[in-house]
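Hi P.,

Sorry for the delay on this. The queue was packed all week, but I finally got your sequence through. Input first:
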Amino acid sequence: MTRHLSLVHKLCTLLLGPALVSAQGAPDAGMTDGPVPDVRFAIYSGVWSGRSDAGLRIVARNSGPRSLQLESLTLAQGSGGQPVMHLALAVPAAGWAEAETAYVDLLSDDQCVTDSLSDEWKLMEISNYPLHPSVRGLIIEDSQSFRIFQCIRGVTLRWLDTATREQWETEEWLLYHFERRPPP
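Then the structure:
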């Protein structure tokens, strides 16, 4: 039953938005249960397209009234370890932030991601919100051959309120956004 409720919580978070669903889970020492912040972020890497050996770039937008810091991101455990990104990304209230970090493998230990990459899908970005093609300014003229696909993976985010120093964790989903364009 707990697993079912957790899935329902994640689905509600994804569909209704993080501001409508409170966080679940047992807090660590010094951690409190806090609200799911209204912060949306996306992660990009040139490594995914083979054009670069760069690290990861994360861009975040905070729609809420409090300045927050995204301390870390921990992927749900797959068959291996738990990749963790230590970010300390300060996102001002009603503002934007971005940072570059060393490359962390966020693609391993997930069957959907592995299958998509081996089937020649191109990973465009990873985010904590659904992405529509118009967000990236794509105009799809041939919808019969252009395809978009998403994989979903659980993630634990650690937050810090920069004013009160209160810390908490939230369990959310990461969406892996793939696309496939027709050959020229």
